Structures are given as C-alpha cells and as structure tokens.
Amino acid sequence: MDSNPDTERFDQYEAELKLVKAELSQKLDQIQEQGGELRKATVTQAEERMKEAGELIKSLQIAKASLPASAKAKVSKSLHEHEADVRGLSRSLSNLSSDRAALFGSRYTDDPSGAGGDEQLEQRQQLLSGTDRLNRSSNRLRESQRIANDTEQIGAGTLQDLATQRETIEHTRDNLLESEGYTDRSIKTLRGMARRMATNRLITIAIITVLVILIIAVIVSKFR
Question: What is the distance between the alpha carbons of residues 208 and 157, in angstroms, rounded to a whole number?
Fold first, then answer.
C-alpha cells in the first residue's frame, strides 16, 4: 500500500483491530473453560473488547472513505474480512453469555471464600479493563482531532486555490474582452481600407476610360 497519511491511518486502525480480535479470541477460549463469577468477569472484559472492535471497524470505514479510488479497492477485501470476523466473534460471545448454567455453576457457589475471591478478582479486572479502554478511547479521540485539523487545513488550502483560480479566470476573461475589442477595431479598419481600394479602382477605371475616349476622338479628328 502507498505511504501517505490516509493509508498509514488505515494501517494503524487495522493493527489495533487485529490485536483486539486476538484478545477476543483468547477471552472466548477462557470463557469456555470458566464458570461462576470468574466467567462473568471474563464475559464483561470480552464485551468491552467487542465494543472496541466495533469502534475500530467504524474508524476503518471512515479512513477508507478518505482514500483514493485505487487504494479503496485494495483495502475493501480486508475490511470485509474484519467485519465478518467481528460478527462471528460477536455471535460466539452472545452464545457464551447466554449460557446461564455455566455462568452460575455450582462449583463456584459451594465455596463462599472462593466466591469472595472471584468477586474481588472480577472488580480488579473490570477496573483494569475500564482503564485500558479509556486510554484506547483517548488515543482514538486525539487521532480523530488530528484528522479533523488536517481536514480543516486541506479545506483552507482548497479554498485558497479556488480563489486563485477565480482571479486567473477573471483576468483571462478581461484579456479576452480586450482582445475582442482589438479584433473589432481591426475588422473596421480592414473594411475601410477595402472600401477605399474599391473607390480608387473605380476612379482609375474612369480616368482610363476618359483617356481612351480622348485618344479616339483625336484620331478621328485627324482623318476628317
């Protein structure tokens, strides 16, 4: 893929999504082996990762929209694959989350001390997960702000270019109008010259005719 800010931004989002997908797959494997409160905590973490995956899919779609047509064709296939993967992971998580027997298995309710430890572990994991997600969201927010600033600068540059092009067009139009004025005056001058040439030709023909008549008259008078 070509090296430019838009493609690099897409690659960055894609790399983050791959990491989140890997974490989701790991969490789903853990959920299948767990039960009780620990399983619930892992499900919560997986749901948080699923939200991140959805946000990254949206970011990829936005980044794709800003790519040139040639680059869009290259990333469309990978984006569709990521979307399909995330949908599959979401279905798997939904199925595991709806397994109430596993979530409230007896092997975690028979031991009160174990349940308390699981609850503390769940709280710690939720806190860490929330902090991690907050950091990721902050990074994406800063990146979105940077994209907005870049877009604003590009828009300002485009407006400046349009203003310059408008001035050039107006200047060209003025020159064209001036040239048309010169052309009209030239045509009038040529027409005047043509009329004078026609007049001079008629005068010349008349003089020649008079001279011929006079010569004929002189010749005729001599033979009388």
Answer: 76
